[in-house]
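Notes for week 9. Today we move from apo structures to complexes. The key idea is that a small molecule is not decoration. When we ask for a structure prediction with zinc ion present, the ligand SMILES becomes part of the input, just like the chain. The input block below holds both the sequence and the ligand string. Read it once before you look at the output, and try to guess where the molecule might sit.
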Amino acid sequence: MDLVVVSADAAHDAVERLTGVALGHHCPRCGARDHGRPVAVGSSRHVSLARSGSHAVVAVAAVPVGVDAEPAGRVETAALAAVGLEGADPTRAWVRAEARGKLTGEGLSGRGHHGPDAVVTDAHVGHGLVVAVATWQPVRLRAGPGARDVAATDPAGPTPRGRSAR
Ligand SMILES: [Zn+2]
């Protein structure tokens, strides 16, 4: 999986230049192509996009993926508790939940999901951002251009029993 950090106001052009994947949209509700979830046009690769301030973090992968990003320290404990979550680092807990929700399409809390659980991995991209990616299988993160410090990190979420984390 490639993770790239780009300027939010030029995300589409930058992603195409850096990964070769053209970003489009597809609305799961009405089928329109001018809004909705980001998709890789003319490619079997999967895309997820998170905007945070002046940055956008884009994950391009061979498998379905959800990514979320927030500025470090952005989420307060109370805000996390308000959506039924907890964590020693509220921002980290928030982006992990958001990444998972983007993967499953169930939103932040993801209640009622009975299938296999997602693998959530922390990514360190620099730029003062807290980033997590969610996939159904453990993946190796690769720093795309613009993501200075992407580290392949230990999965932060629950890994299904009997499955290697790598
Ligand atoms: Zn629509």
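The mean pLDDT is 80.
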